[in-house]
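Re: the 760-residue chain
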Amino acid sequence: MHLTGGGQEHAGGLLSRPSVQRAVVCLVLVCVVGLIYGQVVHHEFLLFDDNHYVNENPMVRRGLSMEGLRYAFGFHSKTYWHPVTWLSHMLEVELFGMDSGMHHLVNAFLHAVNACLLFAFLHTATGAFWPSAAAALLFAVHPLNVDSVAWLAERKNILSSTFWMLCLLAYPWYVRKRTAARYTALALLFVAGLLAKPMLVTLPFVLLLLDYWPLGRISLGRVQERPGKKNGRGAFRPEGEPPGRLLAEKVPLFVLSGASIVVSSVSLRVGGMMVESSLTPMVLRIQNAVVSYSYYIVKLLWPSGLTFYYPFPESALPAWQVIGSLTLVASVSALVLAYARRAPYLVVGWLWYLGTLVPVLGIVQGGLWPQIAERFMYIPAIGLFVCACFGARDLAARSRAAVPAIACAAAVVLVVLSGLSWKQVSYWKDSYIMDLRAIEVNPKNYVALVNLAVYLCNKNRYEEALPYLKKALEAHPTDNVVLSTLARVYRGLGRQEEAMRYLEEAARYDRQGVEARYDLGLYLAEKGDVDRAISQFEQVLGREPHHVLAHYNLGVLMAKKGRLDESERHLRTCLELKPDEVDCLNALGMLLVTRGKPSEAEALFRKALTVDPRNADAQNNLRALAGKKQPGGAGAVPDDSESIRRRLEKEPGNARLLQLLAVRLAGKGDLDGALDALGSYMKLRPDDPAGYYNAACVHAKKGEVDKALDLLGMALDKGFSDWRLIETDPDLDHARTSPRFRRLLEAHRGAGGADGAPRG
């Protein structure tokens, strides 16, 4: 066979050279993508999946490492197996840190690369310059692709498509000279794509289509179109090969596809993401799959009302939709088959569309499966673009007078689509804008309602979040995410009994995730029910072993139970997963102090100050250690209250001893003596918030709630910011029942304090 990259050439001029023409098209593609998607440099990480893939994933946040490599190739909850995608996120953290704009720009860059590779493949394989350029431009600017590019979590879609395009480009190269080395290169690109996302399982099927057109390896008994002539439409003597040989050639690739399907299915089951047919009946799945084919075409032709999530139907679809879609698919299929010889690109483009959508039609479902998803059209739409652009070429060839009209129409379409895409990208700027847009498109979109409520909760805007959650609960009264978020809102509003009720319901319906159990564990810890809290956190780790805050909370609770070895193990695991977790650095440091390892503890406190230079706990802990290291200090600080008092007679200005005396007396139940010691401590260190906080705890234990809250307010005024301790410290249980307690915390958080929402 003789494959060339020949396009339309004209005598004279630099731009008449094919290589220059191709370079100009690629430059235009890059510029157009840059104009549409350059705005993503200002986009934030989203609460919907971006947090799981990047900014709240401790393994990804560490960048590239051997442990990260093991994580990438392991099976996890909330996602299927795509190790190459994990590694790409880790590499970006290594290069750009947690700069969300740079992470988004990589998606845009890969989209531009994909458009250029698509053009290169079509031009190389067909020799038709303008149709190839037009198809690539449609791919670059169509609004259906915004979902894949502007959503960082869809890196797997963009990256796997890059390998798809490389495989398409490598296939004609292999056909030109069929050697084992070239086939191996094709197979390796295919494997890399499967490891980025198993969407590539249909590629061997597409390669068989390409054997018919444009590569001309399958003959239907007539002279076929073939690249190589100056206009890219030259006739040639068919060099058909036996279909059995072409099929056998793809067998290794089909085997790789089968292996990918098996591994992906296993990963979904291991991660607890597989949606059983008992929850979504197979009949409904098939109905939706049939209707989806028509729905996607409508979205392609009229891209309005686009959004990030379309809720899956909960009941049977109307018969007219199913029958109508079947009729459309059958009619178009019959039409393109009738033109299979005269316009082979039609049958190839149509079957490309039908075949590549199969893996994402929802027959097999994992996780939160949508009715349709624009990102699912990233590869399938190419088949329809090919039909449209090469069809326009043939139309222009039949009527030269129509060429200007076709060119003008194409220009208008591309400009309009570019404008729509630019606007669509702006909806992905942050979670608030994205969710509001989704609710505007569909007011009953319960996923958007919940996501918006979570966003508002993170901003402590609980009253605003409540109406959205009530609407979501009407649609899904047993959804554990809705229930646990409602509990969070009621906690924020100080309505603890309602919060507990919703948390328990959420945990009961939590079949797949861990967040409801994590939140329930936090609430039980706050109430002082340590044993039940430990049980909930252990269940969280049973489902998600890398849950950072579950390890942290277990470490704290195990220490309270006196199980110091287990406490240290969990705290160290927390720091392995997230080395800059300040609360854990302080907690492990304090544990090591009690275990006689002051030097190691000091290193942890100093690291905490490196991460957060104003962290009051780390400062206090370092001062306490310094007190121990004074003459007669380390190891000589007495443990019993009488010995401490005798030391204080010699060192009346030793604040560390006063603090230690208060702790010892409170532990023995001498609360008045503890308050006397703390009073002396606060006179020595009037600006240390820890003294006021400890005094608040003692008054709370005495039942003197108003005094406790007065002192807690003073501690907060002076910079005390350990919100987790305030929320969980059992010494404050009496004070926590007062409505004033919640108002006090909200007032200080709203004034610029740290976000006290559960971090899970």
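The CA atoms of residues 615 and 631 lie 27 Å apart.
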